[in-house]
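dude i think i finally got it to work??
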Amino acid sequence: MPRDCTMATIAAEAAALASHGVLAIGGDEAAQMLVTFDAAPVFRLVDRAFGGTGQTPAALPTSFPLSAELLIARLEETVGAALSQTLGGDVPVRPVKRSTKLARLGLWDDKEAMMQLVLVVEEDGCEPWMLSLAFPHDALARALSGRVQPALVATAGAPADPRSEPFASLPVTLTAVLVDMKIGFSKLVDLKPGDVIPVPVARTVPLRAGGRTIAAGSVGELDDRVAVRLTQAFQ
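look at this
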């Protein structure tokens, strides 16, 4: 579900290297939204695009190379096309600018009230990755003014309360995916005590129940134990 936040919150939670793109909604650029891709998943996708297995570099660079920039442009176009389709197909959504620094976009100040939606992309055999969509509260209203018909109100009964029996006592296994890495078989058989294996722990950790991502958080510590602080919770 989207969350209420500010641009200052988004900036504070952004990775050290990330692509922040602006998508214009509708026929003019009055309604705009922010799409953000962290560097780690971008480099994994670039590695896969060139025939690799989708590994994150042991040390991320300080800027995006041309191959990553081209991939980000493709991702922005794909997100824009999906949003346009979701909005009925006749509302154009197109990229207009991009930067690795939010301040350089010059669109919203730190106190701007925003709605942020984090999407989790999952593929079989690949590490899940996330992208962020954020927009001012009135952006979609301006873009879709006069286009959206009132939604039909559902008349079905209220859904069962998961806090009530018999659901409340059902055990649910939660899985926090701290790292999901691959290693060549030749390196695996040569492993010995004392070897150091770089572990690319993701900045944002997906939390799963029943194979489905239900939340996301950041890795921290609580009472000398590894803990996950939730930053997003999905319905």
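Residues 18 and 151 are 36 Å apart (CA to CA).
im so relieved honestly
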